[in-house]
């Protein structure tokens, strides 16, 4: 049994695009990739976690998105250096 939520992005892409397996597995892999994709409604959560002093790694784990996505969004929204000490 394959657990798509445990697979990394590269593994999911391999299943969805290149593996010789059932369409059900391919669909599951593609659906998991879509779930992990950045969505604009995630921004408030990103800002909250970043403001709490969490690292890019910690945020990626908590939000279940790749570290590179977190880093790009922090840059896009100019959040570096905008943490508030509590």
Helix and strand topology:
Elements: H1 9-17, H2 23-36, H3 43-51, H4 56-63, H5 67-76
Helix pairs in contact: 1-2, 4-5
Describe this protein's structure:
This protein is an all-alpha fold and 86 residues long. It has two domains: 33 residues; 37 residues, Arc Repressor Mutant, subunit A. Helix content is 58%, strand content 0%. It contains five helices and no strands. Helix 4 crosses helix 5. The longest helix has 14 residues. It is elongated and about 45 Å long.
Briefly, what is this?
The protein is mostly helical. Helix content is 58%, strand content 0%. The mean pLDDT is 87.
The gross shape turns out to be: elongated
N-to-C order of helices and strands: HHHHH
Helix residue percentage: 55-70%
Query: Which CATH class of the largest domain is shown?
Result: Mainly Alpha
Number of strands: 0
The largest β sheet comes out as: none
Gyration radius, rounded: 16 Å
CATH 2nd-level architecture of the largest domain: Orthogonal Bundle
On the 0 to 100 scale, the average pLDDT is 87
Low-confidence stretches: none
CATH topology grouping of the largest domain = Arc Repressor Mutant, subunit A
Number of helices: 5
Structural key phrases:
86 residues, Arc Repressor Mutant, subunit A, 2 domains, 58% helix
């Amino acid at each position: 049994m394959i657990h798509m939520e445990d697979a990394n992005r590269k593994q999911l892409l391999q299943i969805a695009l290149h593996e010789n397996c059932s369409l059900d597995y391919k669909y599951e892999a593609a659906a998991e990739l879509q779930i992990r994709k950045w969505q604009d409604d995630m921004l408030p959560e990103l800002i909250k976690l970043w403001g709490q002093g969490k690292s890019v790694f910690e945020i990626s784990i908590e939000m279940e998105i790749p570290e590179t996505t977190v880093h790009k969004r922090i840059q896009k929204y100019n959040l570096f250096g905008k943490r508030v000490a509590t």
